[in-house]
Amino acid sequence: MSAELKRRKAVQEDAVAQYERMIEIREFEEQINGLFAAGSIRGTTHLCLGQEALAVGLASVLRPTDIVSATYRGHGIALALGLSPEAVLGEIMGKTIGCCGGVGGSMHLSNMELGLLPTSAIIGGGMPVAAGAALSFQVRKTDDVAVAVFGDGATNIGAFHETLNLAAIWNLPVIFICDNNVYGEYSRINLTTPLEDLHMRADSYKMPHFSLDGMDIGAVQKGVTEAVNRARSGGGPTLIEAKTYRFAGHSRADQALYRPEGELEKWQKRDPIKVTEESLVASGALNADKIAKIKSDMKTTIEKVVATCQASPEPSLASMFQNIFTPAKVGR
Amino acid sequence: MGTTTPMRFRQAIVSALADEMRADSTVMLFGEDVAEAEGPFKTSEGLLTEFGPLRIRDTPISEMGFTGAAVGAAIMGMKPVVEIMFMEFLGVALDQLVTEAAKMRYLSNGKLSVPMVVRASVGSGLGFGCQHSQTLENWVAATPGLKVVCPSDAQAAYSLMRASIQDPDPVMILEPRILYAERGDVDTSLVLPIGKARVLRKGSDITVVALGQMVNVSRSAIEKSGLDVELIDLATVVPWDRETVLTSVKKTGRLVVVEEAPKSGGWGSEIVAAATSELFSQLKGAPFRITTPDVPVPYSGVLEARFVPTADDVARQLTESLKSGTTPKSWWELEGLK
């Protein structure tokens, strides 16, 4: 079993490992701005601070043979599914150690062994692709499922509606997870969308739907499990709306000054890390000392990851010419 | 040896789809009205009956949705063929082809292939008006990761369809709608690889490169002109067959490209540029292009017939260029238009 599959197995089996992965994502994301300022990252990045419970909760429920399409806000999901921090940060830094050898960048993370399709930088772009993966499972009669994760903004693009309709009429084993973090790029959802509960849109497609508390990993696991079980048993697609909040701005350049006063602070009271800690302390799995150690160990781990990625070579010029077409094979 | 059978262009497409589906259980077809109705141009006749509703599917009018579904299905081991009824309808699905399908291998560090085929009917001549008559190969030709083919007769339709389905990467097939009813002999054992042009007529005076319905037009033009012209059916726009084209131009010293596409931004410019920069000292005259004017496809039968390069006009330009050694004017320049 590869090291990355082992990382996946850990979050599938153990609640403390899930908590540690959430801390890993938090620590990882908090390093990004500093690396940007230091010139180690170029272009743009989209952080998922505050959305760790959804990423890890999802990864804990799915099998590695299930397929996930996700978005440019994908560092957390990639880490949760089991990609190594080196594979993710290396890609963000454009180094050969990255999961795409440095030619993809922050917005394009993938690992098919873990079921992660290349994340898409186009709003809604991964949704029909996930439906197609589900179509393949249906035709080949496996019980794997496909999951499309997308933001609240994607519910206003054509791909969302076309894909939900197609998945519904074909009864595809696909789960649509809307990560409603309240903001589509720089605009609050109420400025762009006439309804608050986005999952209601599934009614138009006669598709089961519900919302869940995306700040609570337990709620994520319960809701995703329900939808996954339906899809695996031939019951078709589900639209889930996870209510989350984006603690950072849309992207690197965005200070998120458009937020109403007090909104961030209100959501931070329900920080998914805090919610998980409280639950694990209550169950006796963690205490204050263990939590402090996990956090300080993770800081050290991520510092090492940064050093490893800094030391990784730049891609060769030849790598620019690779992987455009599949090596020739004529006939079958 | 396979058998040689006379059939219509559209039947060659049906045969190729059926033969691929028999040979490979992962091949499937979906699109608007392709199953129950057997295709708006009858290019899927009998397929639902033979292969059933799991593999032959009608879709909603959702080109982005079902083109994207083909991307996902292809990644996960199927070989989907999707039909875009009119090439213009690809506009709403272009993201999935150009930005998803064509980038998947690159963005997966070579782990993924996307063996999907997008078929679209193209071209003018049937009075469908300007939103249903364009060829638009130039929309997709500048996309690394995507292959683009265009058959000009029933044999090419059969062989290129099979080659496209067997190809491990996304392939766009442009089917000239005006050719669907044309008859031709099809040898089912004949392989036409993607990226290989077809020399349809040997000659020494001029090399003519054409695509799709312009191949027939060019053939008639050559007969009318009485000149000794080498006719090449390009067949694949991307990656185009530099070797066959440049070898021919080296021999004849003259190149004319006949395109059913607007003058500006055409694939023929690429061919003229390559021949000019690589064979400059061996040329006997300036390579040039015969195209449509830079206007939308007109509806009126009189106008549409004139809009597209005609055999008479191609014959005139071939003859003039050989006689005068200069590049002939387009018909609209001669008419004082534009």
Automatic annotation (TrEMBL), chain A:
Which cofactor(s) does the record list? thiamine diphosphate
- The identity of this protein, by name, is Unannotated protein
* Record SUPFAM superfamilies: Thiamin diphosphate-binding fold (THDP-binding)
Under Pfam families, the record lists:
E1_dh (PF00676)
Keyword vocabulary terms for this entry: Oxidoreductase, Thiamine pyrophosphate
Gene3D superfamilies in alphabetical order? 3.40.50.970
* Membrane-spanning parts: none
- PANTHER family reported for this sequence: 3-METHYL-2-OXOBUTANOATE DEHYDROGENASE SUBUNIT ALPHA (PTHR11516:SF41), PYRUVATE DEHYDROGENASE E1 COMPONENT, ALPHA SUBUNIT BACTERIAL AND ORGANELLAR (PTHR11516)
What GO annotations for molecular function exist for this entry?
Answer: pyruvate dehydrogenase (acetyl-transferring) activity
The Dehydrogenase E1 component domain covers which part of the protein?
21-316
Is Oxidoreductase found in the keyword set? yes
Q: Tell me, which GO biological process terms does this entry list?
A: pyruvate decarboxylation to acetyl-CoA
UniProtKB/TrEMBL annotation, chain B:
Entry's CDD domains?
TPP_PYR_E1-PDHc-beta_like (cd07036)
UniProt-recorded Gene Ontology molecular function terms? oxidoreductase activity
**UniProt keyword annotations, A-Z:** Oxidoreductase, Thiamine pyrophosphate
Q: Which SUPFAM superfamilies does the entry link to?
A: Thiamin diphosphate-binding fold (THDP-binding) (SSF52518), TK C-terminal domain-like (SSF52922)
User: Which co-factor is required?
Assistant: thiamine diphosphate
Q: Known InterPro entries for this protein?
A: THDP-binding, Transketo_C/PFOR_II, Transketolase-like_Pyr-bd, Transketolase_C
Under the heading SMART domains, the entry gives: Transket_pyr
Q: Where is the Transketolase-like pyrimidine-binding domain?
A: 7-182
UniProt cross-references to Pfam families, sorted A to Z = Transket_pyr, Transketolase_C
State the protein's name. Answer: Unannotated protein
Which organism encodes this protein? Answer: freshwater metagenome
